[in-house]
Amino acid sequence: IRLQSVYVDEHSCIGCWNCAMIAQSTFFMEEEHGRARVFQQWGDDDETIQIAIETCPVDCIHYIPYDELVRLEKDRRGQNI
């Protein structure tokens, strides 16, 4: 059981596409604002996700506890990203 979830800080994301190109089953690019989002938690294997995280030029992808993910996603709703 994984205790951490993958989270993209969309406010910091610059839309470089690195994560979405590497871990295609985990990340996607949100079309309206051109920012990365997590499509499916752990859609790719651990190594692929880690490579995607490490290629982020602004370090906006993090592992966080599930309860924090729920809180951040709730806070994000309705925000203009």
TrEMBL record:
One of its GO terms (molecular function) is iron-sulfur cluster binding. Pfam families: Fer4_13. Keywords: Iron, Iron-sulfur, Metal-binding. InterPro entries: 3Fe4S_ferredoxin. The keyword Metal-binding applies. The keyword Amino-acid biosynthesis does not apply. This is 3Fe-4S ferredoxin. It comes from Fragilariopsis cylindrus CCMP1102.
